[in-house]
Design a protein that fits this description.
heterodimer; A: mainly alpha; 12 helices; 2 strands; 71% helix; B: 389 residues
Chain lengths: 302, 389
């Protein structure tokens, strides 16, 4: 029972982490809370759906997932990044607003994204054309019921997150991004082209969100509201980890995903809070963190 | 300058935006009268729309007294609306899981008490937070409220919702039976005739109720806005440190404005429950919060008449898109179209006119007064009007 929830917690965490990294990056570099981030995930998911439907499986399969679906995920990442860049150029770039104004504008963009998806695909839920699998045989005796697809989600997330780590630590762009997150003005006078770094931030953040959305569709199903419904959990993860810290967002995403899936254990130890309040627990944690450690558990105490 | 004494001077004194809005309001009213007369719009349905517009106007006034006056980013409007609706519904409905069956007036009081408690519950932890944290925290707590309403079946009937809510005036001496006692009037003849029967009088009574609520709230807020209390709030909005340096307990002032706004939102919820006679957890969906935000930003943050205007526009969008649904050549449902329209309005407003259509005019305290002291020291009133730079 506990092992099973830990395993599904790992899988759900993977998706939350992919979402929260992008939100945290944009929060620190563009300096506002992007409410359209969840719907960027939806865009990634639906682009994968369309691409996979168009190209099919392409022969072989890895971890129970057709090769074609991996191509579809890349398409989802690319589309999410493209939409984010176009939005930055068309909308945010020309606005002379404080972070609150940008926050409100991002709500409008969230509605536009979701409306476009809903116009194209209807409000009902749908699934990828991938056969769902039975739980892995040799794990079932231990009470763990996860499928190869779940393993694939976890492995892909680890690969993406490791790639981001390498990029941030060792590439030129990564150093510039960290410099800009620390102090944008200082980065600018040091000769960093902050506009360009900002665009790359959008590409990376939205791209990871697109991947997260594609995996979320595989994990459960696709609906136009899927990203928006996850957005507050992602905010909780970002705040728990500390806004602006990428590694904090990873830790926060991991913890929020775990807590979310471990909620049923509460009734085992006699606390009468059911699974239906799993999200509510995360939101309360978020408010408590904001109150007592606004820099997050990874940041310094203020 | 008064409209009655000097209509011409009054007109020339208006800003371009004010003239435009006046023109649009008159045009819209004429359109409504035209469709009423020609029978395109049933009178009972029209009154229902007026009721809804009043409800959104109330919600906008409430949010305006939080965001417009003191700059609080409250994203929990839906929770206060819902707690108002559920408060009165649970106290008065026949199918309520709580065994009270009280009069709607008692339900109104119960809803207000509940809303005040919820305002304290949300406000005490969040009002000290930075502005964007307040936004996230308040929407999170609003979701907590929604989840409780959805899942605590023993108190709220859960996803079934609460049915059998009485009309607000049921059991009142004269007003309670007025719709039944009024005569049925028929204008015209045949199938196209306009019939004014009991539902019509009932709707008229509801409109009277909401107009009274809106009127009282508007007067109270206008008075509060001009009072020393309102000036402190606007100072907090433009520069909280300044207000604190002047010896004001800004937390306490913010809490007062938060509770005041929340009570007005709860009033809107009470009215909705007795208009719709049914409430469900869907009424606490965050989309309501964002509708009200659009209304306030569209009207002009800080401006009460702007909030009224925004409330009417929101109902026009909501019901207008439903109307579009009837056309065959639009190949998709109204819901995403409404969402798209709301989104586009938000983005265009923030891009081109962040101060809204009817920003407050001739104010003493304005965000920029703090940074840029006026050239003429004898007057702190802005020479240029907002939106006319």
């Amino acid at each position: 029972m506990v092992l099973d929830q830990l395993a599904s917690g790992l899988v759900f965490s993977s998706i939350i982490v992919l979402g929260s990294i992008g939100l945290s990056l944009v929060y620190s570099i563009a300096n506002f809370a992007n409410f359209a981030h969840g719907d960027t995930m939806t865009i990634g998911a639906y682009t994968s759906l369309v691409t996979f439907g168009a190209i099919g499986g392409l022969g072989g399969a890895v971890l129970g997932i057709p090769i074609g679906f991996f191509v579809a995920i890349v398409a989802g990442i690319a589309m999410a990044a493209l939409v984010a860049v176009v939005t930055e150029k068309l909308v945010y770039d020309g606005m002379e607003l404080d972070s609150i104004g940008l926050l409100i504008a991002s709500i409008g963009l969230a509605f536009i994204y979701r409306a476009v998806v809903q116009i194209g695909f209807g409000a009902q839920s749908t699934r990828y054309g991938i056969q769902s699998l039975r739980p892995i045989e040799w794990l079932v005796p231990y009470g763990v019921r996860i499928t190869l697809h779940d393993v694939a989600i976890f492995v892909s997330a680890v690969v993406l997150v490791s790639g981001l780590h390498l990029l941030l630590q060792y590439s030129d762009l990564g150093r510039k991004m960290r410099a800009m997150a620390d102090n944008p003005d200082l980065a600018r006078v040091s000769g960093i082209r902050t506009d360009r770094v900002k665009l790359w931030t959008w590409v990376i953040g939205a791209g990871l969100a697109g991947a997260g959305g594609a995996f979320l569709g595989l994990y459960s199903q696709l609906t136009p509201r899927m990203g928006f419904n996850l957005l507050l959990l992602i905010f909780a993860a970002v705040i728990l980890g500390g806004i602006g810290s990428v590694y904090g967002a990873m830790l926060g995403g991991f913890l929020i995903g775990m807590i979310n899936q471990l909620t049923p254990l509460l009734s085992n130890v006699g606390i009468p809070i059911g699974i239906e309040y799993a999200d509510a627990i995360a939101f309360v944690i978020m408010v408590v963190v904001l109150l007592f450690r606004p820099n997050g558990i990874a940041g310094e105490a203020s | 300058m008064s409209l009655v004494e000097d209509p011409k001077g009054y007109w020339t004194d208006l800003t371009v935006a004010e003239k435009g809005v006046s023109g649009a309001v008159v045009g819209f009213a004429l359109l409504l009268v035209f469709s009423l007369v020609t029978g395109g719009l049933a009178p009972t349905y029209f009154l229902y729309l007026v009721g809804l517009a009043g409800m959104y106007a109330l919600l906008s006034l409430g949010l305006n007294s939080q965001w417009g006056f003191s700059g609080l980013i409250n994203f929990s409007v839906a929770a206060f609306f819902g707690i108002g609706a559920y408060g009165t519904a649970l106290a008065s409905a026949s199918s309520s899981p709580l065994p009270y069956d009280l009069a709607p007036v008692v339900g109104l009081l119960a809803a207000l008490v509940l809303a005040a408690l919820l305002a304290l519950f949300i406000g005490i932890p969040t009002l000290r937070l930075r502005a964007d944290y307040l936004a996230i925290a308040s929407i999170g707590l609003a979701e907590v409220v929604r989840l409780i309403v959805l899942n605590q079946d023993n108190w709220t009937n859960g996803s079934e919702g609460v049915r059998g809510i009485p009309g607000f005036f049921d059991g009142w001496p004269v007003l309670g039976t007025l719709p039944e006692t009024m005569p049925t009037l028929v204008f015209g003849s045949g199938p196209g005739a306009t019939v004014l029967n009991t539902p019509f009088w009932q709707a008229l009574l509801n409109v009277g109720l909401v107009l009274a609520l809106v009127g009282v709230s508007y007067l109270v807020l206008r008075r509060a806005h001009r009072s020393p209390w309102g000036r402190v709030l606007r100072t907090i909005r433009s520069d909280e440190d300044l207000a604190r340096a002047l010896g004001k307990n800004t937390y306490s002032f913010k809490m007062q404005s938060f509770v005041l706004g929340s009570l007005i939102m709860a009033l809107a919820g009470v009215f909705y429950a007795h208009l719709n006679l049914y409430v469900s957890p869907g009424d606490l969906d965050p989309i309501t919060t964002f509708y009200v935000w659009v209304a306030v930003i569209l009207g002009g943050s800080g401006s009460n008449r702007g909030a009224l205007f925004g409330g009417v526009v929101i109902v026009a969008i909501r019901e207008g898109t439903r109307f579009l649904n009837g056309f065959e050549f639009i190949p998709f449902a109204a819901a995403p179209l409404r969402l798209l329209l709301i989104g586009v309005i938000i983005v265009l407003l923030m891009r081109f006119r962040p101060q809204g259509v009817l920003p407050p005019q001739r104010e003493l305290i304005w965000p920029k007064t703090v940074d840029e002291a006026p050239e003429q020291l004898d007057s702190g009133v802005r020479e240029t009007k907002a939106g006319e730079r």
